[in-house]
Amino acid sequence: MQATEDEIQIVLEIDSFPLMEVGHLQATENWDFILVSDLQKTNPNRDQRRQRFLAELKKEGFSIKEIEDRKRLFFGIRAHSSIFTQYTDLLKDVSYSAPPALSSGPVLTTTARIRIVNFILRKKEVNGEKFDDLLKDHVFETKFPLHEREEFLQSNWARWRDIFYRQPIDKIRNYFGEKVALYFAWLGWYTVMLVPAAGAGLVVFLSGFSLFDASQISKEICEASETIMCPLQDHQRKYWRLSETCTFAKLTHLFDNEGTVFFAIFMALWATVFLEFWKREHARTASHWNLYGWDEDQEELALELINNPTYQLQKHQHSYLHSSAILIFSLVMICLLIGMAHVLVVYRVMATFLFSHSALPFLEQQLTTAVVVTGALVHYITIVVMTKVNRRVALKLCDFEKPRTFSERESNFTVKFFTFQFFAHFSSLVYTAFFLGRINGHPGNQVRIGGQWRLEECHPSGCMMDLFVQMAIIMGLKQTLSNCVEYLSPWLTYRIRKLRESSKGRRLHDPSLEEWLKNYSLNEVNVFSLFDEFMEMMIQYGFTTIFVAAFPLAPLLALFSNLIEIRLDAIKMVRLQRRLVPRKAKDIGTWLQVLEAIGVLAVIANGMVIAFTSEFIPRLVYKYHYGPCSWGSNSTADCLTGYVNHSLSVFHTKDYKDQVPSQEIESVTECRYRDYRNTVDYNYSPEFWFLLACRLVFVILFEHVALCGKLIAAWFVPDVPQSVKNKVLEEKFENLRQKLCLSSRVTDV
Fold first, then answer.
1. DSSP for 94-135?
2. Which region holds residue 175: left if phi is over 0, alpha if psi is between -120 and 50, else beta?
3. Tell me: the pLDDT tens digits for 465-499?
């Protein structure tokens, strides 16, 4: 039986609200988009432009319903079925289905309808003006698709009690489109894969408790009451005893122990396995959604032709001049971000001076710890500010580049914005890990800023403590404070908007208006709403992998954060925000390359942290080259006996040229400091150069072993499961066989 156009249209309309009751459907009408105009910002010229735009839509076959409410005009628009027939004819789209009763007529899903109508609205040009131009000039205030009465997602996904339940990815795809569904599929897979990483990090951290009191190094530090250390600051120039750092020495072994190396290698392999298994999971999802044959460029061209039959093809363009300018501006921006890390160094130097003159006893006693903590807080504030700057700069560079399509623009924006964000988040950590305390000179000849302010030293228990504290504070704030703001901000905004748009005292003569007002009172969304969620997760992934050797609890913190993040995003999208315009996609796009780049950086960074920041290599070299167990000795003593004394250099106090420290302890003739220098001219000792060679050898070996492991893991785990390959192969075979049969029939006739 052939279906009439009206019957198909009825099915299209019913498909838009699959879970609504029939009685409600009879009372209200179905609209693809709602346009809103603010009457307070209107004038005769804007009225004419608005009417011209709406008249052009009517010519294209759109049905329009106008309702005035207080100081706003609402326009419900619905596209004619002929537009969607053109779409399916041009693309033979696989994202539609037909009910058995009307199997001869294609029925697009609601997400496809919204996507097509949004494209037409965005591209429609009247007298040289597009819809975005009308928005900027307040001809229209906003546009949005309506939320459906999606009871399943509200009751089985967007609730806190479902935090440990599997996500209904297919339902999410049917409601929000493939792009959003792939984000939640990836986030869910990432969260599941964090479980073994979090477990391994927790084991490494807890294993440090076995060394809390048993470590030979901690014992020597706690008993070193006679070891006098050189002053660490200019403005608190007092000698101090090494035993004062007893507690911090024990705490350092919680994350800087023998298991750190194996955990860093494990995380390098984990990052590879995670990506490879995600590729397999994505391949299954793409096969299930029939996305293998979908071509984004082809769909974009089809929509352009539907919107404008006279459309002229816009080809890809490349300009070496533009590319060079963008590269130069990007490098300038990166230098600025690195400069922000230097500003933080200056802050910490100034904070040392201010805290040393503070009236609070705690700040004077824990001066170094207070400087590290406040420095991390300032770093977090800097990240928040520079994120806004980075976004604007990246958008300007993308506009200058003139990409052909929105997807191309989004991809270019992703690369630029992530690069800027990476330097904003990690420049200070790189300084802390590899430069802090290593470019300061030595007692009596300190490097100073402007010849006056002495550079800060590492924490008395080692530079690893500085990196651990900074990582813990920044990641902790981003995962807690950011999540709170991410939820509370839209929740409060929604409540305020709802109060302003309250229908009390109104008589709603049209049942459609109530639904429109409910959607209007929700928070606005933009084209980068989902992008922001992806960016947040990429930065978290960077913290979880790049410096994980200094913070083994990062995967555990990320796991807890992601369990909350999934439900936060679900509640925002379903209950607090207007409906996102569905976008079709067959993968997560450029983000996959970002993940692969982070994996490579993680191998390099963790190898260098273990070699140059932690005490692993110095302990290992002492144990087998200088200590009581070296050269095959059969000593019964602990192999690290004497390590603390070996790792401290001697400085003669008579060599102080100015600012001689106070003599509060006793008459001090020599003091100790962390370094490998001789006692004559304070140049680097032979032990320093031998240790440096061992560090470099370790970095080379670590990176080669980790990268080889990554390559083996990538080879061992195929990107696409054999079942998916066989399914695609069978479909190709069946299509060819059907064409052959059809060709034979035509020949016979």
1. SSEE--GGGTTS-EE-HHHHHHHHHHHHHH-EETTEEHHHHH
2. alpha
3. 888 888 888 888 877 877 788 778 888 888 887 77
Residue-level pLDDT at 54: 93
Could you tell me which residues come within 8 angstroms of residue 412 by beta carbon, excluding any fewer than 6 positions away? 397, 398, 401, 403
CB 182 within 8 A of CB 285: yes
User: What distance in Å separates the CA atoms of residue 592 and residue 596, rounded to the nearest whole number?
Assistant: 6
Q: Domain ranges for the chain, please list them.
A: 5-149, 169-304+323-501+527-614, 618-700, 724-749
- Residue 670 makes CB contacts below 8 A (sequence gap 6+) with 228, 650, 651, 652, 653
Q: How far is CA 489 from CA 159, 481, 597, 674, in A?
A: 18, 12, 32, 47
Question: 541, 530 in Cβ contact below 8 A?
Answer: no
Please report which confidence band the pLDDT of residue 103 belongs to, taking 50, 70 and 90 as the band edges. very low
**407/410 Cα distance (integer angstroms):** 5
Strands 129-130 and 125-126 come out as: antiparallel
Residues 6+ apart with CB under 8 A from 246: 218, 221, 222
Backbone angles phi, psi at 409, to 5 degrees: -65, -40
Tokens of 174: 């049917």
Place of tokens 């195929």: 718
Count Cα neighbours of 39 within 13 Å in the Cβ-side half-sphere.
Answer: 9
Whole-number Å distance between alpha carbons of 455 and 449: 7
Work out whether the CA dihedral 171, 174, 180, 181 comes out positive or negative. positive
Distance of alpha carbon 747 from alpha carbon 586, whole angstroms? 39
Mean pLDDT for 244-273 is 83
Instruction: Decide if pLDDT at 439 tops 90.
Output: no
- pLDDT at 309 exceeding the cut of 90: no
